[in-house]
Amino acid sequence: MSLKFGTDGVRGVANVEITPELALLLGRAAARVLGGRRWYVGRDTRISGPLLAAALAAGLASEGAEVVDLGVLPTPGVALISSVEKSPAAMISASHNPFGDNGIKFFAEGGRKLPDDVETELEAELTVLGAGGDPRPRPQGAEVGSLSTDPSGLTRYRDRLVGEILEGRSLDGVKVVALTAMLAFLSATQDVALDAFRREILPDAELGLGNAIHVNAYRIAGLVPGSLSLILADHLPWSQVFVITAAFMIPGLAMTLLSKEPLAATGTPRTLRAAVVEPFQEFFGRHGVRSALLVLAFLFFYKLGDSLCTALATPFYLDMGYSKTEIGVIAKNAGLWPMVIGGILGGIWMVKLGINRALWIFGVVQFVTILGFVWMAWLGPAESDAGRLAVLAIVIAGEAVGAGLGTTAFVAFMARTTHPAYTATQLALFTSLMAVPRTFINATAGWLVEALGWYSFFWLCFALAIPGMLLLLKVAPWNGEAHQASAGSAARAA
C-alpha cells in the first residue's frame, strides 16, 4: 500500500478511500514512526468520524500506545491538548471537503507540524505494513496499549481561549460583536472617503495610473497585518501586537492633516436629502434609467467570474495535491508581485489607451486567465513535482496579472462614472453593488463545487465572465472616449 501524505495526513471519500482498514494501518505506522506512549485522538462531527477514530485508536493501541479519545473537538483544540500534554495526536477531519469525505491528520509530540522527512517515513512504514511482510514483533499481553475517553478536551480548549488568549475576558454578551462591527464600519467608511478623495484630485486621464498605484499600495501594505503582525504574535502579547500594527496608521493620519481640500469639493451637505438622495438622483438623471441600470449591471458582472473563481482557490490547490507550504511560497512570489507589477504597468498603459480600451484589453486578459484553473482541474490531483509546481505558479501568476489589470481599469471606470460633487455617495453605491451581492454568490462556491466538481465549476466561472464583457459594448465602447473628446473639442470651438 502506497499513499501520499498532504497537509500532515490523508483525506478522501470515507469508507472508500479512507477506510477503517487504512485507519488501522495508519495508527500502527504512526505509533512506530512518531513514538509516544500516550496518544490523543479527536474528530469533527462527520458521521464517519467514530468509525475511523475507533480503527485508528485500535491501530495505535496494537503498537502499545495509550489512546485517549477526546471526542468532538476543533482541530486547534486537539493541537492544544497535544502541546500541553507533550504527546502526539491525531485529528479525524476532512476540513473543507464535502461531508461524505474524511481524513486523518497527525501532530508530532507537542502539537507540532510533521516535518517532510517524517511524512516520507510514515508513507514508507504504511507501505511495509500494507504489504503484510513486516517481521517485527508486536506488543503482547501487558504490553498492549489501552483505550480511554476524556470529555474535558472542549472545556480545556475553551478555558485556554478565554483565559490566555482573551486574557480572561468572556465571549458572553455583545462586546466582541459590537467591536468587530465598529471596526468593519470604520474600515468601510475610510475606504469610501479615500476613493472619493482620489477621484476629486485626479483628472480622468490620470485615473488609471492613480488607481493602480492606490490598489497596489493597498496590497503591499496588507503585508503588515497579514505577515508582520503574525510574526510579532509569536513573541509578544496580542495587546502589544495590535498597538504596533495600529502605529502604521500614523503616516496616513499625518498625510491627512497635511493634505488640502480638493478644488472639486462642494462643501458639507446641509440635509440628509443632499447627502443621500440627490447623489442617486444625479446618477440616474445624468445617465437615464436604462443606461444607469446597464452601468450597475456592468459593475456587478465585470469581475464576477474572476471573483467566484478564486473564492476557494486554496482548497482547490490542496485538493490538487499541493502542500500548504508550496501554496504559500508560490502564491507569495507568483501571486502578489505579478499582480502589483501588472497593476502598475496597466495603469501606465491606461494613460495612453484610455479607460474604455483598457477595460476591453484588461478584461480579456482577466477573462482568459480563468482558463488556467480549468486547465489545472483537467489535469487533476497528482503528486507534486517540478512540473506540477510550474503549473501552479503559471496559474497563480496568470490570475494575479489578470486580476491586477482588470481591477485597475475597473476602479478607474467606477471613479470616472461618479460626479465630482457626489463622489463619496456614488462610490459607496458602486462598491456596495460590486461587493455585497458578489459576496453572497461567492458563499455558494462550496455548494457549487460539491454539485459540479472543480472542472465544471471553473467553466461556470468562465461563463459568468461573459456578460460583463458583452456589457462593455453599451457602457464603454472601444472608441467611446475618442468620440467624447471630439464632441468636446467641437463644442469648445463653437
Write the layout of secondary structure elements.
Layout: E1 9-13, H1 20-34, E2 38-43, H2 49-62, E3 66-72, H3 75-85, E4 89-92, E5 101-107, H4 116-131, E6 146-149, H5 153-165, H6 175-201, H7 207-221, H8 223-233, H9 238-247, H10 250-258, H11 272-287, H12 289-301, H13 304-309, H14 313-319, H15 324-353, H16 355-379, H17 386-417, H18 423-442, H19 445-452, H20 454-464, H21 466-475, H22 480-493
Helix pairs in contact: 1-2, 1-4, 3-5, 6-18, 7-15, 7-17, 8-9, 11-12, 12-18, 12-21, 15-16, 15-17, 16-17, 16-20, 19-20
What do you see in this structure?
The longest helix is centred in the C-terminal third of the chain and has 32 residues, at 386-417. This protein has two domains: 9-165, Alpha-D-Glucose-1,6-Bisphosphate, Chain A, domain 3 (3-Layer(aba) Sandwich); 175-221 and 267-486, Growth Hormone, Chain: A (Up-down Bundle). Helix content is 67%, strand content 7%. Strand 2, helix 2 (49-62) and strand 3 form a beta-alpha-beta unit. The chain is an alpha/beta fold. The protein has 22 helices and six strands. Strands 1-5-4-2-3-6 form a six-stranded mixed β-sheet, with helices on both faces.
